[in-house]
Amino acid sequence: MATMADVARSAGVSVATVSHVLNDTRPVLPRTRQAVLDAVEELGYTTNTLARSLVTARTRSVGLAVSAISNPYFTEILQGVEAAALEAGYSLLIADPHDDPEHERKVVQLLHERRVDGMIVAPSAQPRGLLAYLSRHRVPAVLLDRLVDAPDTEGGPRFDQVCADNAEPMSRLVTHLAGLGHRRIGLVAGLPGLSTTSERIMGYRSGLALAGLPYDERLLVHGDSESAGAERATAALLSLGAPPTALVTGNNAMTIGALRALRAHGVRVPDDMALGCFDDFAWADLFSPRLTAVAQPGRDIGARAVRVLLERLDEPDRPARTVRLPCTFVHRTSCGCPDASGKPPANPSGTPPVDSSPDPSGDASSDPSEKGPRRDRRRR
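RE: above sequence
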């Protein structure tokens, strides 16, 4: 097996120069750098990661702890984290905390014991044990997707945090539905205690207020961020004496559950119930009707979290910060609007279709809510 000394002899440079090229610890002339890389390729030299970690006190590995890795949204985040980590020369160790506070602390401890240089964690609804462990052991960490209210002594966040904007996009979904004439708009919200849940509820209530609609607590139900819970919560909404005529779901898993409940009760989308979703996913465009949704920048969130963590590793004493990335309004037909060709959605009941044309670009800047209210459609 080739050694670093073999590479140095082949390239005609010192062992120190080879080390600087491979570890990117000091600028090296381009021709010298290329000579070293050519020698590495020719000799088939591979870095001894274990030996390097003993010298540098770094393993060039990152721990990622996120629940529901099978969820398409978190899969996109994982892809973003992996690509950015690989580009920076870091390997990735992954654990699933299952949204359980005790298991969360255990898997984070296991990742820490594997001597990862830092961690990216999507905290549970009760992250006290997690935060205590990270703080006590001074683990460089970035909190992902879900924010925590853990200010430091100077009033800022104790941990770097990266997430999507939640309130404004949810408000936009609600005002869009209100602009189509809906006066009873239901929300299937996520697991209580998560920042994403509270912020999306805030956006829901803000959207109602902007549309001049009263908040009715009976129209807000919790699907606990998973499909089965959303199915039960949607069924509860449908059992009301005056059920909603439009529904907003708080994430993609709950969208599936809500659709199951609507189908089980013979409620057609959008003819009997308009639907808007927080979270877009790959097959949302294949549903009939196609799902109007808020798309979160999952890959960008994952990649940004890696960059923020690497900056933290380079500057351990820098002030913590919270980074929010914008979402995209994806205007399709489940809300009751015609599709891009101008053809209205199927309307077998004969109910007059809503006269509203989406922006051909797919952006909601021409939101029908700006054109005045439409007649409220009642579920039969």
